[in-house]
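If it is no trouble, can you show me the amino acids of a protein and the tokens describing how it folds?
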Amino acid sequence: MNSSLSWQPVRGADATLATQLAADLARRIEDDVLRPGARLPSIRDMAGQAGVSRFTVVEAYEKLAARGLVRSRRGAGFFVAPRAAALPLAAAPKAPQVPPAPARIDIAWLLRSMFRESPTPGMPGGAGLLPPEWLDPEMVAGAVRAVGRSVRSNLVSYGHPQGLPALRQQLAAQLQGMDIPAHPDENLLTTAGVTEGLDLIARLLVQPGDTVLVEDPAWFLIFGRLAAFGARVVGVPRTPDGYDMAALERLAAQHKPKLFIVNSAVHNPTGHSLPAGAVYDVLRIAEKHDFMVVEDDTYAELHPGKAMRLATLDRLQRVIFVGGFSKMMAASLRVGYVAAAPAIQQQLTDLKMLSGLTSSELGERVVHRILAEGQYRLHMERVRNRVDEARERCMRQLLRLGFEVPHPPQAGMFVWADCGRDSESLARIAAERGLLLAPGTLFSPTQAPSTYMRFTVSMADNQAVWKQVAALMGPRGEPA
């Protein structure tokens, strides 16, 4: 081919020289100026023609190869690839689609539907994520840039199996501020989010046939995970004041459970928190019947003031404490932690290494940077205030449309509302109209029929969604 491509670099531009060269060549390939099978100039010739370094040309050619536009032949150079092999440019995102509901709505369907949503939140039955503009993307981006500048050599090696020591030190200080006596080396382990922490605990402590107590209602994902381990999942009725303690006592005596998994602060989906009396009673019954308690602290940062936690009273003897940062920092930061007694912590660390060696040190360094710079506390307060305001607006709208909220949430990003009819049937009708709802039946370990639904506060300002909900419910709150 003619090696004269007349490309001139623009120095000082936002795009690097390699990016500029790759874009120019890609355009020529897509316009058929460079046809399939044509050989690109050698790296030396291209560098000489354009007045750039050979490294710049190599980087540009590799960018084209990564897109499938060119292919490298050892000893011969780079050649334009057949058109069918080229990767298309990313298509514009499609509008969110809710897949057709199955004959019986299940957890897998809701999860698939949640992750088919567009990046713009607003679906009533969406995941427990806040809109990006409610958070602080620049705080996270700034931490990423700072970490990249300061610890480049560490980012290409395995992290510490137990987790970044500096982050564990930071977490220990944070937990000690909650009166939870966590030592960074003896009690703490980082994980790839709360979900992995719960998964490791279940894998360590639950054998097929064991009974695990869960709250009813509760976060539905844990039901499926426990079932996968062959556990028998038994629900304990959650009430606005805590639990039905008589039922907890009876179930513990009857089933001899290994674990009881709880949301003590800012319960998902009700938004309630345990009072001190309920915390004491749970620990008393756990000791009497010899089972462990796993305390999921995922949403507790949305609690106003100091929340009451089981781990504070128990001091990590019978309680395993699990927390994370994806809700308040960024969903893509899969950084969580487990605080437990030293013997359990060591076993969990060994299990973590067997399953995935170490967790991501990059994410852990970003979280540590944000915590260490001291801006996170004010960030939490801003987010909490915005969530509280949005939750109040959601409740007013739901009440106006015919829903009932007998026990309003005290905090958090969900509203647990009564639609007055079988919520699964209503969710199926909604799915046919492209609207995702989360029926209460999925939040019960027995999948019992329910008139309740979980709504996310991210829908608060989405007028298009409110119009869909209003049309679904009808003028008098009756499903239309």
